[in-house]
């Protein structure tokens, strides 16, 4: 039976798209065809969309097609009008810009201030929020140059959405897939800010004037379970749904932090204003976290990462032998994500872990806190029906490296996330503790 949360996190207010002037940049890549669907979605929500294509993008989607969907001509030449500085006008007329897909080439141009076509020239003139939806093969996405360019763009305020983990061109599979249309629409709406429509958020999720002390802070959060494949059909995993990690990511974002959520497989809706990267295995999560941890101010490891994986993954489905035969499964240890982050922790960085236990939870949590070099750890029992995995509520014990100890009674996971973020903020250099609405 599928479990449904009593209340899902509030989605970004798409009413903000009504009347908004959106500069939609499309760069070259197989995913460029999805830009037509995104343009239609923006128009459906009332946005005024001005599309601009790179030459490579025009090989996958045509200016005529986007012009028909947006109702506006699509300029293609930086010098097409001698009486108008096209790239400057495009930038000045935009309330927000979104590039989907954003190739490695475009990310590199933006990071280093290069402008050799209409799109890059317009974006270099932009004085409005910028949303980037990367899409490329896994090897490109994980290349150190691309990682550095993405970090640079985030530091300048660009909002990244995706890429997702899934099927790629050429039959490949992994991180690099263009984020879904809904996620990009939500990111554009979040970049525009709240509309004047009546607020729909609940008391526990509605931001207040005092809830944004984390502007300029970069946080990395992990969530969900990992999967370790035995063969193409079967895998080892656990019961974690990711709800706690998603709640923490949302709580940080509501206070103004730039948040990257690295999540295992699951069905949780993306938190508003959070960039989500989906991974599957412990090694994929390890690589994704370590690629970002060095520039993060806060790292929260809420994922239930598999400690072990099969030593070998069969190329084909394992078949049963004779009735009296048994098969031994050899496991090898997965990398220790939080331990490796803790080993390279820099001064002022705050590291937070979770310990899911079924006995001796305080002793186990205190040991993990010290062994991994954490500042905080949330220790919780996962063998109770109303807390732990796959439910909306949680309880636990918050331990600090400074000797602090706080009981966290049974509460909704979003409220517990608020409590945890308060403790994180208290440990950041030169920051004040935020005031929240939750559980007051």
Strand order of the largest sheet: 12-11-8-13-16-17-18-19
CATH architecture of the largest domain: 3-Layer(aba) Sandwich
Rg result = 23 Å
Number of strands: 19
How is the biggest beta sheet arranged? 8 strands, mixed
Q: For this structure, what is the CATH class of the largest domain?
A: Alpha Beta
Mean pLDDT: 83
End-to-end CA span: 34 Å
- CATH superfamily annotation of the largest domain: CoaB-like
Tally of helical runs:
13
Uncertain segments of ≥5 residues (pLDDT<50)? Answer: 1-11, 195-211, 431-440
Task: Count the domains.
Answer: 2
Net shape: globular
Give the secondary structure arrangement, pairings included.
Layout: E1 21-26, H1 34-44, E2 48-53, H2 63-70, H3 86-92, E3 96-102, H4 104-112, H5 118-124, E4 130-134, H6 138-141, H7 144-155, E5 159-160, E6 164-167, E7 173-177, H8 181-192, E8 218-223, E9 228-229, E10 235-236, H9 243-254, E11 258-263, E12 274-278, H10 282-293, E13 298-301, E14 308-310, E15 331-333, H11 337-343, E16 350-357, H12 361-371, E17 376-381, E18 393-400, E19 405-412, H13 413-426
Parallel strand pairs: 1-2, 1-3, 3-4, 4-5, 8-11, 8-13, 11-12, 13-16, 16-17
Antiparallel strand pairs: 6-7, 9-10, 14-15, 17-18, 18-19
Helix pairs in contact: 1-2, 3-5, 4-7, 9-13
């Amino acid at each position: 039976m599928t479990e449904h949360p009593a209340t899902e996190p509030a989605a970004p207010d798409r009413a903000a798209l009504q009347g908004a002037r959106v500069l939609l940049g499309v760069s070259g890549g197989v995913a460029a065809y999805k830009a037509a669907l995104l343009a239609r979605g923006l128009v459906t929500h009332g946005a005024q969309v001005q599309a601009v294509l790179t030459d490579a993008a025009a090989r996958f989607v045509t200016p005529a097609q986007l012009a028909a969907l947006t109702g506006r001509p699509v300029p293609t030449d930086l010098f097409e009008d001698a009486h108008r500085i096209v790239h400057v006008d495009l930038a000045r007329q935009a309330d927000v810009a979104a590039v989907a897909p954003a190739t490695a080439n475009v990310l590199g141009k933006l990071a280093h201030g290069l402008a050799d076509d209409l799109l890059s020239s317009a974006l270099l003139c932009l004085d409005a929020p910028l949303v980037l939806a990367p899409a490329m093969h896994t090897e490109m996405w994980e290349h150190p140059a691309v990682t550095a360019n993405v970090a640079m763009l985030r530091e300048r305020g660009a909002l990244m959405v995706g890429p997702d983990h899934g099927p790629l061109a050429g039959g490949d599979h992994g991180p690099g897939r263009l984020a879904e249309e809904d996620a990009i629409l939500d990111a554009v709406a979040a970049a525009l800010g709240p509309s004047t429509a009546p607020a729909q958020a609940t008391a526990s999720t509605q931001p207040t004037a005092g809830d944004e002390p984390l502007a300029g802070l970069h946080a990395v959060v992990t969530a969900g379970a990992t999967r370790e494949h035995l063969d193409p059909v079967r895998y080892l995993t656990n019961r974690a749904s990711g709800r706690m990690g998603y709640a923490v990511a949302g709580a940080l974002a509501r206070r103004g932090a730039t948040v990257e959520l690295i999540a295992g497989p699951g069905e949780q809706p993306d938190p508003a204003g959070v960039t989500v990267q989906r991974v599957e295995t412990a090694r994929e999560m390890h690589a994704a976290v370590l690629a970002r941890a060095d520039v993060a101010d806060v790292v929260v490891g809420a994922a239930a990462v598999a400690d072990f994986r099969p030593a070998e993954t069969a190329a084909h489905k394992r078949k049963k032998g004779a009735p009296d035969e048994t098969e031994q499964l050899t496991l090898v240890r997965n990398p220790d994500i939080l331990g490796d982050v803790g080993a390279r922790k820099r001064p002022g960085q705050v590291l937070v872990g979770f310990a899911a236990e079924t006995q001796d939870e305080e002793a186990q949590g205190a040991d993990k806190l010290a062994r991994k070099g954490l500042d905080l750890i949330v220790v919780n029992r996962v063998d109770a029906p109303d807390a732990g995995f796959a439910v909306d509520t949680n309880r636990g014990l918050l331990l600090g490296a400074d000797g602090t100890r706080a009981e966290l009674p049974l509460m909704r996971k979003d409220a517990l996330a608020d409590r945890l973020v308060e403790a994180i903020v208290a440990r950041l250099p030169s920051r004040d503790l935020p005031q929240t609405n939750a559980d007051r």
